[in-house]
Amino acid sequence: MKTWLTVALLLASPAFAQENPMQPSEIWDDLRDSVVGLAQEPQIDAAALDLDAPVRAHDAAFVPIRLTQAADAPPLSDLMLVIDRNPAPVAAEYAFGAALMPLDFEVRVRVDAYSDVRAIGTQADGGKIMAGRFVKASGGCSAPAGKDMAAIEAAKGEMRWKTGEQDGRTIGTLMIRHPMFSGLQRDQVTLLNIPANFIDRLEVRQGDEMLFSMQAGISVSEDPVFRFAYRPNGQPISVHAEDVDGLVWDRSFAAGG
């Protein structure tokens, strides 16, 4: 519980100083066409979409990312989170419900080498908007898991939900126990590679209304934490999660946490 509280406080801290703009990248030039499917560079407008990340990560396996919009920004329907130099660059793809607009959304990711971390959002008219930061971190995708394997298996799928208020908005925090193994880590006892095993599908709703969904790869951090502002409708919060091993978890929480 103490660890999860520490994570929540870290994600809730003020935005990082904007001292690390994205750098020119031949890798991104290739990814933009071949992976993201964009022929042209998306517009960059910090009011429409901004991404905050630390200049130098304290822990490359737990790099906090915060995505925000100005109050009058056009809403986003979906967003792709890309870490240029990670082995699998697309960290996650999100779809957002209207209750999350304007966006204020936080997640933790693994960064494997000094890299731009960028978000490409889709606006209501289909236009693309991009934001990002250059993060100095290395080794995040192969960093060993924080607990022994027996403890990991025993806790897998546990969830917690809490709500609070910040700057006049309701803030929800969802915490899920899962190792999110990347396939690049080694068991510290056997020294054998641990097969990839991560939550690849997640959906969070309040009643029948979708808050957000996620399709993830290997780059979302162990024991994922999602912190986001939303407009509550008074209905219970339901969470559906699936991992690549076929395990499924469904939980419901009272609206107030």
UniProtKB/TrEMBL annotation:
It holds the Pfam family SoxZ. Residues 44-141 form the Ig-like SoxY domain. Keywords: Signal. Residues 166-252 form the Sulphur oxidation protein SoxZ domain. Coiled coil: none annotated. Residues 1-17 form the signal peptide. This is Quinoprotein dehydrogenase-associated SoxYZ-like carrier. It comes from Paracoccus stylophorae.
